[in-house]
Design goal:
The structure is a homodimer of 295-residue chains.
Chain A lengths: L22 E8 L4 E7 L2 E7 L2 E8 L4 H11 L9 E7 L4 E6 L4 H13 L5 H10 L9 E2 H13 L3 H5 L3 E7 L2 E8 L2 H15 L7 E4 L5 H9 L4 E4 L5 H10 L2 E7 L2 E6 L4 E2 L22
Helix pairs in contact in A: 1-6, 3-7, 6-7, 7-8
Chain lengths: 295, 295
Amino acid sequence: MQLPKLNDKSYLIAPQPDRIGLTRTITGVDHTGLEAEHSVVEERPLTIFLNKREIVTAMTISDYPEYLALGFLRNQGMLRPEEDITGVDFDEELETVVVRTAQETDYEDKLSKKTRTSGCAIGTVFGDMMEGLADVSLPEVPVKVSDLYTLSSKINRTPSLYLEAGAIHGTVLCQGDQPLVYMEDVGRHNAVDKIAGWMLQSQTDGADKILYTTGRLTSEMVIKCAMMGIPTLVSRSGFTAWGVDIARQVGLTLIGRLKGQRFVCLSGEGRLIRDAKAAAFPEEDPRQQRKGSKT
Amino acid sequence: MQLPKLNDKSYLIAPQPDRIGLTRTITGVDHTGLEAEHSVVEERPLTIFLNKREIVTAMTISDYPEYLALGFLRNQGMLRPEEDITGVDFDEELETVVVRTAQETDYEDKLSKKTRTSGCAIGTVFGDMMEGLADVSLPEVPVKVSDLYTLSSKINRTPSLYLEAGAIHGTVLCQGDQPLVYMEDVGRHNAVDKIAGWMLQSQTDGADKILYTTGRLTSEMVIKCAMMGIPTLVSRSGFTAWGVDIARQVGLTLIGRLKGQRFVCLSGEGRLIRDAKAAAFPEEDPRQQRKGSKT
């Protein structure tokens, strides 16, 4: 990369593209017949247990298995905000994380009923997420457009697995114009769940935060953001109709296709403070653009 | 779109971007404060049953629910190739598809055991997919590079939901230089599963086919392609290390980052017939590039 790199001291958690085990070198042959080495992301299965119950197997880059487990369970509504979590145990060899709670959770009881009546609980996961939303109330927080431009520029210039290897999504917890926690994973949902796990562990409140993601704004992404109590969700990518519907329902400020000086606000437009003249922020340098081949 | 459009008569199934219910018009406000209308993809939940057992709820654009259900179950190894399927019933109001088989399937038995012992079956889905691979043997089929270039160009010029609304993945079943069945969905897995469902229904053999996808080549995508008996998998996007490992294990020709005249072959390079001088095929017109904002 020829671009000036951002000093990552400002992050609480920044990507660690050089960390051993996250990527591997693989040899391929290009269109001209030449062999070339590629730095490629490693994915591994991770099975998440809630107490004695096996809940899901996720494909992940395995950098923060404990945060992923906590965040997944929290975003699915399987852990209440006030839950007494007595342990989070990662076993690298077995590729499992067990989250333990002081009391058997509601979800386990619900799951066991579902299991008896209609078989597997996979189908209930989505219903539970929508149920969890009923209790969510998001604060009416203003959002400066200049902050969005600054965040986008800072995040794109941060050294990351994406810049190193590609084929990965990123999600960043931000405050004002400052990115704080930058998580990456093969699936965009995992990256968001890892942030949720970090927030739960560090007891961080979402009310004054902005969530930035490289992935599309589907219903699930919007629901997760609302479950995390974050009133503003921003993406470089597009959006689905249901994602927009849910954002409008729960009062979330939803911004899609943020690239350079352009964006589309789909929900909560009244909260935008248009303090930046778009012309003052340049179009993205093509080398900064995430989408598109690294080669 | 200013580009010349491909005559889609050559497809057995082409995208229907104008079909009612697939998109909706949503009003947003852009970076200059102007209101603009956007054509946005609709996603809906679809719950898939195998006989009396609820298996999964997928978020889908709902254009081919029956193919999605059949293909999902087949790619998970829950339906054997020789299974006697007695019915596939879609209920639009309940948002369910029920796939019925003459005999109770092995999977139901396995699921019920898992349910008793370790709770929910979600975690077994991946294990089952890997198990299913043991029986897969892919034929040693040559692949012409000129066909890959022609396919890529034809597919990018085909009118699609992506060109209409964005935020969607496409997967295309091809033979030689001819795209045959072009499916789109919010998740890349759904688009592949719909192709698998069509292949099962129409008893189409994968041995002489090429599978093209816009999505990344993760382990799950490679496993699905192998389960479909298709020896060649091609993507515009990147790849993960495990995706490459599995392709090499099962003898699948794996090609990533196919854009214009460029690509990387990660597995099965010996089968490539380099019959095209790259220079004869132009770089992609920026307007043809899928990745990047539509706006």
